[in-house]
């Protein structure tokens, strides 16, 4: 089992910055695909940023150039730096880990979510 705990959400003005952090209960970052997803009211959950176990990254078009995903294997933490925030970035942000084992295949773990509100 893996527990993920997000932190760093809050209220910020348009154009501002926030940094989200996701702490994992076990040292999985070096072999897990880690990602940040978000869900706005009335909308489906969507992928925001993914970091593959090998270090490659993928970003949603809507956040490219503004958001950066990073990880610290020693601290078991994945972060999402969010710059130039827009009102449409308002959502609950979730951390996700996808872990593969030979015994169980792929297993997906989710954090509880953290609210990000961009408003003046």
Based on CA inertia axes, which overall geometry fits?
elongated
Q: How many strands, what sense, and barrel or not for the largest sheet?
A: 7 strands, mixed
* SSE class: mainly beta
Q: Kindly report how far apart the N and C termini lie.
A: 40 Å
Mean pLDDT: 94
Helix count from the secondary structure assignment = 0
- Report the C-alpha radius of gyration, rounded: 14 Å
**How large is the share of residues in beta strands?**
over 45%
Helix amount: under 10%
List the helices and strands in order: EEEEEEEEEEE
Give an overview in words.
It contains no helices and eleven strands. It has 120 residues and is mainly β. Strands 2, 4, 5, 6, 9, 10 and 11 form a seven-stranded mixed β-sheet that branches. The N and C termini lie far apart (40 Å). The mean pLDDT is 94.
Notable features of this structure?
120 residues, mainly beta, seven-stranded mixed sheet, four-stranded antiparallel sheet, 11 strands
């Amino acid at each position: 089992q893996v527990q993920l705990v997000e932190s760093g959400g809050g209220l910020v003005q348009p154009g501002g910055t926030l940094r989200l952090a996701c702490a994992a209960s076990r040292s999985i970052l070096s072999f897990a695909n880690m990602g940040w997803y978000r869900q706005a009211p009335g909308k489906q959950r969507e992928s925001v940023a993914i970091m593959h176990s090998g270090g490659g990254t993928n970003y949603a078009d809507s956040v490219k150039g503004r958001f950066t995903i990073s990880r610290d294997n020693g601290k078991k933490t994945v972060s999402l730096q969010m710059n130039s925030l827009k009102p449409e970035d308002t959502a609950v942000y979730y951390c996700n880990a996808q872990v593969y084992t030979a015994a169980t295949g792929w297993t997906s773990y989710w954090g509880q979510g953290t609210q990000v509100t961009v408003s003046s």
